[in-house]
Every structure is written in structure tokens, then in C-alpha cells.
TrEMBL record:
<keyword id="KW-0032">Aminotransferase</keyword>
<dbReference type="InterPro" id="IPR015424">
    <property type="entry name" value="PyrdxlP-dep_Trfase"/>
</dbReference>
<dbReference type="InterPro" id="IPR049704">
    <property type="entry name" value="Aminotrans_3_PPA_site"/>
</dbReference>
<dbReference type="InterPro" id="IPR015421">
    <property type="entry name" value="PyrdxlP-dep_Trfase_major"/>
</dbReference>
<dbReference type="GO" id="GO:0030170">
    <property type="term" value="F:pyridoxal phosphate binding"/>
</dbReference>
<dbReference type="InterPro" id="IPR012773">
    <property type="entry name" value="Ectoine_EctB"/>
</dbReference>
<comment type="similarity">
    <text>Belongs to the class-III pyridoxal-phosphate-dependent aminotransferase family.</text>
</comment>
<dbReference type="InterPro" id="IPR004637">
    <property type="entry name" value="Dat"/>
</dbReference>
<dbReference type="GO" id="GO:0047307">
    <property type="term" value="F:diaminobutyrate-pyruvate transaminase activity"/>
</dbReference>
<comment type="pathway">
    <text>Amine and polyamine biosynthesis; ectoine biosynthesis; L-ectoine from L-aspartate 4-semialdehyde: step 1/3.</text>
</comment>
<dbReference type="Pfam" id="PF00202">
    <property type="entry name" value="Aminotran_3"/>
</dbReference>
<protein>
    <recommendedName>
        <fullName>Diaminobutyrate--2-oxoglutarate transaminase</fullName>
        <ecNumber>2.6.1.76</ecNumber>
    </recommendedName>
</protein>
<dbReference type="InterPro" id="IPR015422">
    <property type="entry name" value="PyrdxlP-dep_Trfase_small"/>
</dbReference>
<keyword id="KW-0808">Transferase</keyword>
<dbReference type="GO" id="GO:0045303">
    <property type="term" value="F:diaminobutyrate-2-oxoglutarate transaminase activity"/>
</dbReference>
<keyword id="KW-0663">Pyridoxal phosphate</keyword>
<dbReference type="InterPro" id="IPR005814">
    <property type="entry name" value="Aminotrans_3"/>
</dbReference>
Length: 423
């Protein structure tokens, strides 16, 4: 029975329109519907389930914690669960990367992390303007929407979204312009009429904007430019972080460390709500309680987050496993893209997909894949990219099976029967 969803729930619902099954159970990379049908999940809770559904290595510590009578809700009060998470995050993530960033719990979601980052940047610098990028997505609250590019989502704000400007993301002009030439010039020209911004906010891979992946040299150039002009650099790692691009932070291979970092989605490891805003110690100018939130101290998320860090990030074994799955995924996507004229692989790591020049193709492939038991979504301003986000813990066999389903779906939609058996 699904009538209650149609009659009582708001029209704003989205994913359930593409995937109308009633999902009852889940384990690893598989979801099970009420009618018994199985679905291989290449969506992973929009990136909130990097370690799969109901991962037993995280579930058992959570169940033990809940049964113990320990504190569940604590705002920003001190608890043993928060202490263990902070100690583990410092030991396993920050120190090995030479980072001394402070950790802020801004609220339970990615947009909370972004809002805190924007507010802090303005407070530190005394400047109001924020630069963000074409096709960016940073969240659905007003500050996050102001630095988001998607016109449909921006329109939902209902008011003017001010104090931010959009600048071209890497390769926005198909490589026809020099990197940051315009920005460098206007920042140095007192007559340009462009005020120095408080910060620049960037995604290393634009998860919702079409899986545009910035070159590592471009990202390093952006970092250098911000340093030169005393502009704070914010990296929104909400979707691309926590290992999805192959390293814990998506910017690591670019050779720089941002001033401010936004994390959410898989930082709890289990799909529990949790977000962090990280920033250099000298930026910690908050007054006590100046930014707060009722659900910023979610102790079950501290428990599963600690378990995820201890289980997967204390050495490089898991990272090597992820690297193998990344190579397998991109090999399959390259062969798929090669069979459709004008198609190309987008993204980086296990945040990747295929762009199709016919803007209706990706949506049709995603729908056909669903009918065959595979969950994939689309990305881009016209939903022109089939987007894959399998769990980092997916097996080689599951990934191969999912790619096979995707190829079959693509062959059905495009009529390119030669796709079948391409893998």
C-alpha cells in the first residue's frame, strides 16, 4: 500500500518518484523492497553510506551503546562518545596529514556545515562577499543557496540571494581561457569595482552539477591565488570526502590544505546525521553559543563515526582496496562511453558517471536500470549525466554485476546492442 505517501506526504518528495518501491531492508550494497525484489545500490544514500547499509562493524558498537543507557542527545555538552570521536579523528585523520584544524559540530547536515563556514569566513575577514563556481551545489538553506548555481533550487529561496558571485569552474570554457586570469586581474586592480571576497568555496568534484572534476593543478592554483590575496578557501567535501575520491579528503592529492573544510554525509559512517566544519586554529573566533543547533551533539553518530575511522582509516589497506574498485569502475565507464558517440566519463574516484549529449538519455538509462534492479541517479543542470556512487566497501563481483546492468540498460535505451558483453 502506497496511498499514504501520495495523499499525505508533500509534493516536494523527489527520489521516491524515480524509485517507487517501498524499501524494507538493506545490507551492504543491496536494498530489499516489500515485494521481495532486490536492488543493487549505486546511490549509497547520496553518499551518506560510503561503508554500505547496516555495516556490522559499525552496527554492533551502535547497538551496544544504545543498550547501555548512555547519553543519546547532548547538544554540545561533553560525553565519553564525543571524546572518543575527537581523539580518534585527531589521531587517525588530522595528525597523519599534518593538519591542526579545530573541529566544530555545526548541526546535523551538510548545509549546516556550509552555513557555519560562510558565517565564520565573514566574521574573520570582516568582508561580506563570497565567490563560488558555475554549476556548484552547496545546500538548500539560504546561505548555501546563495553560493549554489542551480537555478531551480535557487528559485525556491523566494528572495534575492545576495553577497555572492559565480565564477567559471575548471574547464567551463572548454579550456579556452587561462586559469584565474580574470580573477587575478580584478583582484589586483583597484579600479575593477570588484570587492575582495571573504572566501572562495569550491567542490573538488561537483557532485550535483554534472560530475565536473577539477584538475588537481587547477585546485592548487586556486589555493595559491587565495593565499596570495588573503582570501579564505573553503572546500565543500560533503559528498566527495570521507574516501569517495580515493583519499579521505578529496583535495589531498592536489597538494594543499584548505582554510575551512565542510564534511557531512559519511562522516558518521552509518547514515546517521552528523556534520563537521574544520578550520585553522587562528580562525576560531567564535563567541560561545554564537553558532549553535539542537542536534549538533548526536552521540550515536559519534559512536559509528569512531568505529568507521578505526576500522577503515588506521592504515592504507582500505585505501588500496578502494583504489582497485575505482580502477574497475572507470574501466567499465570508459568502455561504455566509447560505444555512444559524444559520451564521456565524468567525475573522480567512486563519484563518477557518463555524460550523454542527448539530455534525455541519462534519465532513460537510470529508469531502465531501476527496472533491472540497479539504483543510479542523474546529475547535471539538465540531468545529462548518469551518476554512480557505489559504496566504498562494494565487492568486485557486485560492482561488475552493476556495471553489467548499466550496460544492458544503456543498450536498451540507445539501441546500441553491441554494448552487451562490453565488460
Amino acid at each position: 500500500m502506497t496511498d499514504i505517501f501520495e495523499t499525505l506526504e508533500s509534493e516536494v518528495r523527489g527520489y521516491c518518484r524515480s524509485w517507487p518501491a517501498v524499501f524494507e531492508r538493506s545490507q551492504g550494497s543491496t536494498m530489499y523492497a516489500e515485494d521481495g525484489k532486490e536492488y543493487l545500490d549505486f546511490f549509497s544514500g547520496a553518499g551518506a553510506l560510503n561503508y554500505g547499509h547496516n555495516n556490522p562493524l559499525l552496527l554492533e558498537p551502535l547497538l551496544d551503546y544504545l543498550r547501555s543507557g548512555a547519553v543519546v542527545h547532548s547538544l554540545d555538552m561533553k560525553t565519553p562518545a564525543k571524546r572518543r570521536f575527537l581523539e580518534t579523528f585527531q589521531e587517525v585523520i588530522l595528525k597523519p596529514r599534518g593538519m591542526d584544524h579545530k573541529v566544530m559540530f555545526p548541526g546535523p547536515t551538510g548545509t549546516n556545515s556550509v552555513e557555519a563556514a560562510l558565517k565564520l569566513a565573514r566574521k574573520v575577514t570582516g568582508r561580506q562577499h563570497i565567490l563560488s563556481f558555475t554549476n556548484a551545489f552547496h545546500g538548500m538553506t539560504l546561505g548555501s543557496l546563495s553560493v549554489t548555481g542551480n537555478s531551480m533550487k535557487r528559485k525556491g529561496a523566494g528572495i534575492p540571494l545576495t553577497n555572492s558571485s559565480k565564477i567559471p569552474y575548471d574547464d567551463y570554457f572548454d579550456g579556452e581561457t587561462a586559469d584565474f586570469l580574470w580573477l587575478e586581474r580584478v583582484l589586483e586592480d583597484s579600479g575593477s569595482g570588484v570587492d575582495k571576497p571573504a572566501a572562495v568555496i569550491v567542490e573538488t568534484v561537483q557532485g550535483e552539477g554534472g560530475l565536473n572534476a577539477a584538475r588537481l593543478t587547477w585546485l592548487k592554483g586556486l589555493s595559491d591565488l587565495c593565499k596570495k590575496h588573503d582570501i579564505l578557501l573553503i572546500v565543500d567535501d560533503v559528498q566527495a570526502g570521507c574516501g569517495r575520491t580515493g583519499t579521505f579528503f578529496s583535495f589531498e592529492d592536489a597538494g594543499f590544505t584548505p582554510d575551512i573544510i565542510c564534511l557531512s554525509k559519511s562522516i558518521s559512517g552509518f547514515g546517521l546525521p552528523m556534520a563537521l566544519t574544520l578550520f585553522r586554529p587562528e580562525l576560531d573566533v567564535w563567541e560561545p553559543g554564537e553558532h549553535n543547533g539542537t542536534f549538533r551533539g548526536h552521540n550515536p553518530a559519534f559512536v559509528t563515526g569512531t568505529a568507521a575511522l578505526n576500522t577503515y582509516w588506521r592504515d592504507d589497506a582500505f585505501q588500496q582496496q578502494v583504489a582497485a574498485r575505482i580502477a574497475q569502475l572507470h574501466d567499465g565507464l570508459e568502455r561504455l562511453a566509447a560505444t555512444v558517440e559524444g559520451a564521456s566519463v565524468r567525475g573522480r574516484g567512486l563519484l563518477a558517471g557518463v555524460f550523454f549529449p542527448d539530455t534525455e538519455t541519462a534519465g532513460k538509462i537510470a529508469a531502465a536500470a531501476y527496472e533491472q534492479g540497479l539504483l543510479v541517479e542523474t546529475s547535471g543542470p539538465e540531468s545529462e549525466v548518469v551518476k554512480l556512487m557505489p559504496a566504498l566497501t562494494i565487492t568486485a563481483e557486485e560492482l561488475e554485476r552493476g556495471l553489467g546492468i548499466l550496460i544492458e540498460a544503456a543498450s536498451t535505451v540507445t539501441g546500441a546492442r553491441e554494448l552487451v558483453g562490453a565488460l
